[in-house]
Amino acid sequence: MNVRRHLIPRTALAAAAALGLATLSACASDDAAATNNKGKLDVVASFYPMQYLAEQIGGKHVEVTSLTEPGQEPHDLEISAKQRAQLEESDAALYLKGLQPNVDEAISQSAIKTKIDATTLTSLEEHGTEVGGHAEEHDEHEGHDHGHDHGGKDPHIWLDPVRFGEVAEGVGKAFAKADPKHRATYEKNTEALVKKLKGLDTEFRNGLKDTKSKVFITTHAAFGYLAERYGLTEEAISGLDPEGEPSANRVRELQKTAKADGVTTVFYETLVSDKTARTLADDTGLKTDVLDPIEGITEKSRGDDYVQVMRSNLKSLRTALGAE
């Protein structure tokens, strides 16, 4: 009995001491995010493009975990209880509001101190609702809503190297604020990444300047920013939703567009079925090829990281558009 009586106060004393230490620690790091036991900033990224930014900017000072597994289609990601718990224990969350509604909800409900929404770091526009410069007027929607839950704005900003560079600059500043001890490293890494993205922008600008056609067809409207940046026109089989089924009217419109604008290729992507693209291509006598929206890197990806896959996309576009 005496042993039991002594165990209880000792346990309580230990708990109180731990609580006191935690309180002191919190006070000591009031101007900086807590770091994990490896001394790194714990960052949760919503999906690959955000993971890429975090890793490139954070370098050895961050521990990055992605909520979206490689090969997993990110739009309809379900957040597990384990991932919600992970959010609570992390220092920062880097996400793109509007792309993954369940991620948005989980992050907004979490107590995580640093929440970095990439959409606030650049400008967003509406894409995926126009065809040849005119609003779509489909008589047959076949039960499909051509938009996803993006509030009318296109979230695919990472496919424009210029906008992605703007986001990178904002992320660098957020990391520096969350972890001022390593501010110099974050600033240096951000500068290097922005320089790399500017170089990529130059490659696209020069590579797509002189082409026989300016029109390309994709499975869903992920490349609106890229098309706008480099003077191209994207015609999407479905809207912003990659799983959407096109109406019969839309298919007929694309067949006419292909003939009128010298389209040679229907592009599909790695994480979504190519059935619709191949059906349209077969009906119109066109070829198919991959144009990767880079929502994840898998063994099917044509490159090991964002820049490599973007260069592969450039090569595919140059071939399809008849670059000189």
Summarize the model shown.
The protein has ten helices and ten strands. With 324 residues, the chain is α/β, with parallel strands linked by helices. Helix 9 links the parallel strand 9 and strand 10.
| Overall pLDDT | 83
Which stretches are low in confidence, meaning pLDDT under 50 for 5 or more residues running? 1-34, 129-150
Q: Work out the helix count.
A: 10
Class by alpha and beta content: alpha/beta
Cross-sheet strand order for the largest sheet: 2-1-3-4
Rg, Å, rounded? 24 Å
Question: Largest sheet, described in full?
Answer: 4 strands, parallel
Terminus-to-terminus distance: 90 Å
- Identify the overall geometry: globular
Determine the oligomeric state from the structure.
single chain
Number of strands: 10
What would you say this structure looks like, in words?
44% of the residues lie in helices and 12% in strands. By secondary structure, it is α/β, with parallel strands linked by helices. A four-stranded parallel β-sheet has the order 2-1-3-4, with helices on both faces. Strands 8-7-9-10 form a four-stranded parallel β-sheet, sandwiched between helices. The longest helix has 27 residues, at 2-28. It is globular and about 60 Å long. The model is unreliable at 1-34 and 129-150 (pLDDT under 50).
